[in-house]
Write a structure and sequence with these properties.
heterodimer, A: 261 residues, alpha/beta, Rossmann fold, six-stranded mixed β-sheet, 10 strands, globular, B: 2 strands, 5% strand
């Protein structure tokens, strides 16, 4: 039997103020699998993503087990785990902290100690992957939001990642930017864990869905089944990607008794 | 909505194409040389003025824009220079008596003030030209290559990157304030209070953002050691330009002692 790419067993995490953020979470993911992570605000989605990459690592506040590609999350393995998990933050202005696109995409490979020639190649390759080839010398604040999101993804593609953890990748994008992003994510060979409120994104991209609420996994199964379970979605503050209220807008919004003039 | 703009003005002049390290050092040499001129060295100051004018002419950048930028920095220098004529000892020209206090204007003081203003203005011209003819990232690369301590380079990089984000945030807050206040008829105190609130909120947002940026850096393997990849080869033309500029600066400075 091969080791799954992602193994989380009975993983709990308290914030420093004592609040329980993740409550005995267990989750397995295979290489190349695309999983949607949905749940109301404050459910613990971003916290879970942060742990995959070890940026919230603190032994005193964690219990349980978390492993990526067979590497246990431990102080000794932090660097190796970070190289394998690409964390893409919701706001690209937090992710892109250099003055040029090149410097930003090169940051990861450089900190992995890659030689200069290889860094250059990886930057060019990663930018080509996200359709931003030739943007090396541009400054992040000159890019549109959609372009910045693409570059943010390139920053982790330039590393030898096997799992991408994306936080609200479609937030703030217009329909075209959103379509382009979904198309891009579809082409990636890496496993994806996508935390989002965008249920259509989950439907289009992720065959499997995990519902997180109050720090616990309350449902885990095929997207097709879960997203059609109206009662489940309702219970956890979500809505179906297809649900449109019945009747034309004007009729529903008209004050009663004022329908005819 | 008014947001921060970069000082760089694109162009393809010889000044634009020069190696950024060389430009940085040339501007620095000019500023040091002009600052070292003695009081009243008018001929040397004029020569330095001509050098600056020549460099601006060569860059093909608009004079009016640069002039406006130098004007922005001048009040700060002016305020300091204004006190000089009264504190420098020398031949009194005019005195103001107010009870036991006397304020005396001296000839030497006036000369010193004029020199300080001229030196400062020329130095500001050169700085304005440097940042107008060199993209900010290129200047940062130059600082790395010139062995400025990496921690300072990182600080400058982050500052430049987030200055623009911060300016946009401030502009949004200002719009939000304008949208909720009818006109500007309120008192100065009210406006000061609102401004104070805005500055505080910007500070708190910046601290929260700094934490998120740190996480983003950690996520990509940051271990506290700044690393960057820079490779710029000196071009031969650069050597001649450097020699020429050095000779011109020395010649202009020599005028002060002839």
């Amino acid at each position: 039997m091969t080791t799954p790419l992602l193994q989380i067993e009975q993983f709990s995490f308290h914030y420093a103020n004592g609040r329980l953020a993740l409550d005995r979470v267990s989750l397995r993911g295979e290489a190349g699998e695309r999983i949607g992570l949905v749940g109301p605000n404050g459910a613990g989605k971003s916290t879970l993503l942060g742990h995959l990459n070890g940026v919230l690592y603190d032994e005193r506040l964690m219990q349980g087990r978390l492993a990526v590609a067979g590497l246990e999350l431990s102080r000794r393995n932090l660097r190796a785990v970070r190289a394998r998990v690409g964390l893409v933050f919701q706001n690209p202005d937090d992710q892109l902290f250099s003055t040029t696109v090149f410097d930003d995409v090169a940051f990861g490979p450089l900190h992995l100690g890659r030689p200069p020639e290889q860094v250059r190649q990886q930057v060019a390759w990663a930018l080509a992957q996200v359709g931003m080839a030739g943007a090396e010398e541009r400054m992040p604040h000159h890019l549109s939001l959609g372009e910045r999101k693409r570059v943010a993804i390139a920053t982790v593609l330039a590393m030898p990642t096997e799992l991408l953890a994306l936080d609200e990748p479609t937030a703030g994008l217009d329909p075209r930017g959103r379509r382009e992003l979904v198309a891009l994510l579809r082409t990636l060979p890496q496993a994806l864990l996508v935390a989002t409120h965008d249920m259509r994104l989950v439907w289009e991209l992720c065959p499997r869905t995990v519902v997180l609420d109050g720090g616990r996994i309350v449902a885990d199964g095929p997207t097709e089944e879960l997203l059609q379970d109206a009662a489940l979605l309702e219970r956890h503050g979500l809505e179906s990607p297809f649900a449109l209220p019945e009747g034309p807008v004007a009729e529903r919004n008209a004050p009663s008794g004022a329908r005819e003039r | 909505m008014q947001t921060l703009r970069e000082p760089y003005l694109a162009g393809s002049s010889p000044v634009h194409r020069l190696d950024p390290r060389l430009k940085l050092l040339a501007a620095l040499a000019y500023i040091v040389a002009v600052s070292a001129l003695p009081d009243g060295a008018w001929r040397a100051l004029a020569a330095f003025g001509l050098l600056a004018a020549g460099a601006v002419g060569l860059s093909g950048l608009p004079w009016a824009t640069l002039l406006k930028r130098t004007g922005l920095a001048l009040p700060f220098v002016g305020l300091i220079a204004l006190s000089v004529p009264f504190v420098r000892a020398g031949e009194p020209l005019w005195a103001l008596h107010w009870g036991p206090l006397a304020l005396t204007l001296t000839r030497e003081g006036l000369v010193a003030m004029a020199t300080i203003l001229a030196r400062a203005w020329l130095a500001i011209w050169m700085s304005a030209l440097l940042v107008a003819a060199t993209p900010l990232p290129a200047l940062l690369h130059a600082l790395w290559l010139l062995r400025l301590p990496p921690i300072l380079c990182t600080t400058l990089t982050l500052m430049i990157r987030y200055l623009f984000v911060l300016a946009e945030e401030a502009a949004r807050l200002q719009t939000a304030r304008a949208a909720r206040s009818a006109g500007d008829g309120r008192s100065v105190f009210w406006r000061a209070r609102v401004l104070g609130g805005m500055v505080g909120s910007l500070l708190i947002r910046s601290i929260a953002r700094a934490e998120r940026i740190y996480l983003a850096m950690l996520a990509r393997g940051y271990d506290g050691a700044p690393r960057a990849l820079h490779g710029l080869a000196w071009r031969n033309g650069g050597t001649y330009a450097a020699l020429g500029w050095g000779a011109a600066l020395a010649g202009a400075a020599a005028l002060a002692y002839l």
